[in-house]
Amino acid sequence: MRLFLIGIMAMALTACGYASRDTEAVGQVKRVMNNTPILCSDFIDVDLSLGVIRNGVGSVSNEDIWIVVSRPDAEILKKANEEGQLVKITYDQQRFAFCTQGRFATKVEILK
After folding, report:
1. Distance CA 52, CA 23 (A)
2. For the whole prediction, is pTM greater than 0.85?
3. How far apart are CA 37 and CA 61, in angstroms?
């Protein structure tokens, strides 16, 4: 029993914190979603497509990431989606997140 509790405590301690911080992703916003899960508080997710084409040159990727953003950042990203602009999102990745993918935006900017 004691070994089991030590194992649980070790897992809890290593799952806390961040897997990475200040990671940058550049892409185009596909959609902004308001999520209202039953067990967790509401949050806003952004689907960011990492395949970027500039002036007809670049790569088309089927790789997307989901990032949790604040309400003011969501408005900026909705505008970027409507205008087809590229965005750069700086985010922190948590080791363990219960209701989300674990990526939380710290900075959002529209690239010109």
Report:
1. 18
2. no
3. 29
**pLDDT by residue for the chain (112 residues), tens digit each?**
777 777 666 666 666 778 889 999 999 898 999 998 888 889 999 999 887 666 655 556 678 899 999 999 999 999 999 998 999 999 999 887 888 888 999 999 999 8
Bridging pattern class, strands 86-94 and 64-69: unpaired
Among the residues of 1-112, which ranges form H helices? 2-15, 71-83
Please, are residues 19 and 92 in contact by the beta-carbon 8 Å criterion? no
For tokens 């897997």, the residue is 19
Give residue 105's identity as a one-letter amino acid code: A
User: Two tokens at 47?
Assistant: 């689907």
> Which CATH fold topology does 18-110 show?
OB fold (Dihydrolipoamide Acetyltransferase, E2P) (2.40.50)
Other CB atoms closer than 10 Å to residue 80's CB: what's the count? Answer: 20
Query: Tokens in use for 112?
Result: 């010109």
